[in-house]
């Protein structure tokens, strides 16, 4: 339950104190995450249009999207530490400023190389969003409310994935595809100004009541004072490699959906920009349910008395089996909504898998090491995505747009990843802290 503030004093009212200010801050995190995903999805939605206008091959497009993954991979393991050094008030908006400018720079790019430079900047900036948002939650919420706050701001990723295919065609049909990048970039830039004007640390924020500050600090995390665990010490544990390799093998499938689905639907089903919204919305709304359902599943097993290892791995096995549905996409010839249904099941299962693979980090590493191992996992997933983007572009050019084998590979990766995880940590409980 979200707790309200006690009675606010006259002095605090004069200072324009906000009731439940921490949830206003959470709203800003939600907005940042929403526009984060809108910015990264614009290019995928416009892939058929830009390819037609600029004469790109799929290989060209693959190299452009790989540049984003490279920027994301470079920044992911160090973003959190940079935010710690600069501070949230200026570090977070600096990251958003970089990705906003990079998003708008797409509008002025005239060839694949220039798009790649803009895409690299977008990846460098966007990689900092989740570390910064998670740090903000830790600073602004007592421990018992952090999961809810994280769930609220994280839902912005799926909201962004739903809003982008609705807003982008509307802008493009009226102002052209260049304007779509400027539009989403300006949305992100507006966040920068609001944050700089509004945000202060809890102890120095004049809009925060004394009572709410006491609530926020009511269970100060003593482990926050502990020293960070060196990367070499983290990498010495098999659980670290299970997490990193699991992300390396499965994150690229999600990136494949994000960046290549609009092109696939255009090529195979003739879905144009105007009609692209409904299929993508169905897929990403289903992914939302999968994210919640996957986390609920392992929790339900734990409540039944299962061991943590059995609960996590069984939930991941169920998700991995559901992902296999996407293997049958090539057999759904001519049936758009059957194809959407199969991809929706797989996307939903990916999010359920993702919710559970993150528990390897929280189960097997002490709190001071969680940020580092999550960053290393993000690096693994982004590097996998980098290579896959290049490979997909090359394959589609070589095979004359044969998407079928790509879906087969996507459907098998989770079972292979689970096998790797099982081989690395057969006794899950021994890895737990």
Number of domains: 2
Topology pattern, helix = H, strand = E: HHHHHHHHHHHHHHHHHH
Structural class: mainly alpha
CATH fold category name of the largest domain = Growth Hormone, Chain: A
Largest sheet: none
Q: What would the principal axes of the Cα set say about the shape?
A: globular
Cα separation of the termini: 29 Å
Mean pLDDT: 89
Please tally the helical runs, counting DSSP H or I stretches of 4 or more residues.
Answer: 18
How large a portion of the residues is in β-strands, by DSSP E?
A: under 5%
Query: Taking Cα atoms only, what radius of gyration do you get, to the nearest Å?
Result: 22 Å
The low-confidence runs, each spanning 5 or more residues with pLDDT under 50, are 1-14
Q: What's the CATH class of the largest domain, please? A: Mainly Alpha
E-strand count: 0
- Residues in helix, %: over 70%
CATH architecture of the largest domain: Up-down Bundle
CATH superfamily of the largest domain: MFS general substrate transporter like domains
Give an overview in words.
- The chain is mainly α.
- The chain has 18 helices and no strands.
- α4 packs antiparallel against α16 (367-399), α7 packs antiparallel against α8 and α12 (238-269) runs antiparallel to α17.
- Mean pLDDT is 89; it is low at 1-14.
- It has helices spanning 10-14, 21-45, 47-54, 58-86, 88-105, 112-126, 129-140, 143-175, 177-198, 210-216, 231-235, 238-269, 277-303, 308-323, 336-364, 367-399, 404-424, 428-431.
